[in-house]
Amino acid sequence: MSANNKRSFTILVIPHSEESTYSARLPLFAVQVAVTFLVLAVAGLCLLVFSYFRVLADAREVYALREMNRAQQEEISTLAAETQRMMEQVKAIDELVVFVTEKLDLDVEEILNEVESNAVEGFGYYNGGSAVYGSRTDNLYRGGSEADGVLGRASQNIIILQSLVPERSETLEIVNEYVVQADAKPSIWPARGRIASGFGMRKIPYASGFQFHTGVDIIGAYGSTIWASAAGKVVFAGYRGSYGHTVIIDHGYGYETIYAHLSGFAVDAGDLVERGQTVGYVGASGRTTGTHLHYEVLHNGSPVNPVNYMQ
């Protein structure tokens, strides 16, 4: 057998019928080429299938990341809106505190001491009428990127502001308490006129000797108006011995005022009155040497000089 015959394959076809057989001789290199091509085709097909599933997995991961990013963007937008709302609320409270303290000329140092004693951390102090906010608001997210990410920083801002809002509200409550106290404190003249007799020791006008005068006597026209010097509740309106027709107002926080020698009443016991509201009229009832208003201010049950409360 020749070398060529040894390096070839013969394909023999034998039909079931009586027809003649067929044979075909293929060179060895042709078979090798065909097998190599088939192996490469199968490998290519496997690589293509693998690449397809790899791309499909990547596409799913990209889609999941895109959905996660969209959800985070929505959460960031929500947090940003909440942060803005809380910052505006804190700012509004601080501006209201500034306005109230300046308008009513309250003792700011006393307020701040009370705030500090109540551990209201981060409260703004006042310098020249402007609010200087606490250090925690300076740490709020201003833009850019941080190690913990925008979303984490925004969440921290919400935590900071959520603690600041109730603290600012507590501060406002403290200031409001001072407002209420200021409203209860007598601060105006109760009637038009001049002071004829002041607070303290004086000669008894209708007898010999001296006595302690617990109020001031304001000379005014008979029937002229008498005003409440602060808001409060009328606890007495009637005749009271040597004081004659008398009105007593309880203003709260230890303050009471007495209006005596009236010619008539404009209020009844139990009425709530505002500062400047008419409560009676100047007269000469009771034990008196002439028409005037006897006006007293009591603090915690003790008479104090009314002049110190007559602005």
CATH architecture of the largest domain: Distorted Sandwich
Residues in helices, as a percent range:
40-55%
Question: What global shape is seen?
Answer: rod-shaped
Tally of helical segments: 5
CATH class of the largest domain: Mainly Beta
Number of self-contained structural domains: 3
Structural category: alpha+beta
Order of helices and strands: HEEHHEEHHEEEEEEEEEEEE
Radius of gyration: 48 Å
Question: If you had to describe this structure to a student in words, what would you say it looks like?
Answer:
The structure is a single chain. This protein is of the alpha+beta class. It folds into 3 domains: 3-64; 76-184, no CATH class; 194-309, Glucose Permease (Domain IIA) (Distorted Sandwich). It contains 5 helices and 16 strands. Strands 5, 8, 9, 10, 11, 12, 13, 14, 15 and 16 form a 10-stranded antiparallel beta sheet that branches. A two-stranded antiparallel sheet has the order 1-2. It starts with a helix and ends in a 7-residue tail after the last strand. Residues 119-139 and 141-148 have low confidence and may be disordered.
Question: Concise description?
Answer:
The protein is an alpha+beta fold and 311 residues long.
Tags for this model:
311 residues; alpha+beta; Glucose Permease (Domain IIA); 3 domains; 10-stranded antiparallel sheet; two-stranded antiparallel sheet; 5 helices; 16 strands; 42% helix; 26% strand; rod-shaped
Topology (elements, then pairings):
Blueprint: H1 3-6, E1 8-13, E2 22-27, H2 28-103, H3 108-117, E3 125-127, E4 130-132, H4 135-138, H5 149-184, E5 194-197, E6 200-203, E7 210-213, E8 216-219, E9 225-227, E10 232-239, E11 245-252, E12 255-265, E13 272-273, E14 278-282, E15 293-299, E16 302-304
Antiparallel strand pairs: 1-2, 3-4, 5-8, 6-7, 8-15, 9-14, 10-11, 10-13, 11-12, 12-14, 12-15, 15-16
Helix pairs in contact: 2-5
